[in-house]
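Entry 14. Structure prediction run on the chain below.
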Amino acid sequence: MDGAGMKTLILHIGPKREAGHPVALFVNEGTDPRWFETPRAEAVIAEHPDFTAPLVDPGSSGFFKDPDSGEPLTGRLALERLLALEDESPTLEVIGQYLFHLMFQGQVLAEWNRLRAAYPREDPPHSEGLRLILDIRSRELEQLPWELLTGDGPRRLFLDPTLVAVRGSVDPSRRGPAPKPEWPLRVLVVVGDEAGDKRIEASWELEALEAAFHEMRHMVDHEVLHTPSRTALRKAYEGYRPHVFHFIGHGLEDVGTGRIGLHLLKGEPPWTVDLITTDLSQAPPRLAILNACYSADMPEAERLWSLAQAFRQFGTAAVVGMRGEVPGPAAATFSAELYKALAAGATLDRAVQKARTETSVQPGPGKRDWALPAAWFGVLPEEVFPSLVSGSRLLTEFRESDEYKHFLLSDFVDRKQERRQVMGSVEPAAVIPSISASHLLVVTGPSEVGKTALIYWGLEGCAHHERRLAYVDLKGGVTTGFLEVLRAIRDGDPGDPSPIKQPLPPEAFSTFNRDLNFLLRGQQPPDTKPEGHVEDEGLPFKADNVPENAPRRIFESFRAALKDAGQRPPLVLVLDNLRGVFVEDFKRYLRPWLIDPIARGELAPIRLVLAVRDTEAPELGLGERVLPPMKPLPPHRRVTLSPFSSGDFHKFVSDFLRRRYPDAQEREVIVRTLHKMKFRGQGQYVWKPSLLKTLLSLIEA
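Output returned:
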């Protein structure tokens, strides 16, 4: 659901006037282009020293009262009671009804009931539902827990699946240009607590985020900074330019200035509002998630809420702050479910609602924690960032292929920088800061180090955008000449149903096939285009039976055909296991007449990926240093993979086992047991991804 069929309601509360806090309901039913100029209904919330006054319960004719103390509810008491609770309580429902009737009274309530009946839900079988945006312009009232709003019966508006409710300051009359779509979504996670902090319990949230991001695969690229200095954070932010800034930690007061800030590194002063604005305002994130203790809460509500307001004021499109201390397990559920919902195609408001719902049904104490996140929008939710779902037919087919399922086992490895380099090189739509596009990518390293798995990762990313993918494995059983390589590129693998091993468009190769037939028969081909399709006769290349210019003419004709085939959609071509090609054929023909022209961009937009062992790269002229008489490669990108060190074992094997063993503690026991079985007594060692198959067999035995 993208929000396109929803009817938008904006409810203004405040700013405060002499009579109190005015309430104005604006409704967009799609029939009036000037809907935002005149409210559909109005009311007033009376001013009161405790934010809001006691209110008569329409169902009992007495005041709404705190069930525990019997005191009449006011806005201040409602907020204090929410923060004092540690679990679900009947008090929350009473607070929700109290706040509902403060906001929805008189004309506003009547219009609300009419709209609820007219647009009952967004999901099938109905086609239209409601989106409610609370634009609270009175500072006193902004602090109140409006997330508890409870309407008809026990129906809580912020959990109600038939509509979606958020906070926000959306002005439809001043909508600026939509942000430029960028893919993948970049998320910077900053952890500001010290290890073992029992209040934050960041490990829960980090584990949940890693699992969610792992499942989101190419849709998201993330970076985690643990207790960085302000200088380190600023440098990382400027280089990464995240769409999402996600903070986990504490809010603290700066002793010297009295300002409230986020705690980054022990011994450093807090990262205060003014510093946050200085460091981030030149490139504001589209979304900020501030999971900081009391980042929007009493007793320092007005001051601590300024952390979230700082992001709002310097241009962040949406901010999520916690209105109380959310324990690690609940924060983990909320954050992970939010990202999962985005990955499933939800707009951000629906993603927040889904995260609330999942948090509310978690077992154990803390069931009131769903109400603590306060989400604010400065634009319509679908405008925060584009949907992450591609709907690509090619991606679906690619993920159903046997080789994808095989290499899925091997892509556990961190290799974050290498993945970014691959994606930035091969996928035209990818925006990876500090990594420029290149038409040629060379992947080198020892055998069984994960070169092919890394390349498949890149191809999966390209499949999101329906690129034409051509993967050619040249290892074979016999060494291959240059003509067999060209034919393999053109024909794919006829016996393999994989979507990345299919023939290139036959119509693009008619002229090449005709020229090839002539040249291999020892004749010069005509200069005219052939009439109709021409098939390759399959003749062999015999140097003593072809014209002297035959190899050059073959490559000229092939490049023209390849460029034609690789335009719409753009072609990503992979030549894997180059050890299967005659060295002299590669150096004499393929390098100068195919590889180098592609690298120079002469066949743009085609991208080429070469995979070769590091020991064989120099002989083929693909090493970092080229031996004469070979010329250096044109500008290109290189990724060199190495075996993993002993220090990587626990983290990487744990990542690998996450799908089978989601419980982190259980996984840790398994990893330690596997480590003892394989490396008992060894201090320093290296290992390759191929070890995973051995470990998996030990687990499943």
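Confidence is low (pLDDT under 50) at residues 295-299.
Filed with the rest of this week's runs.
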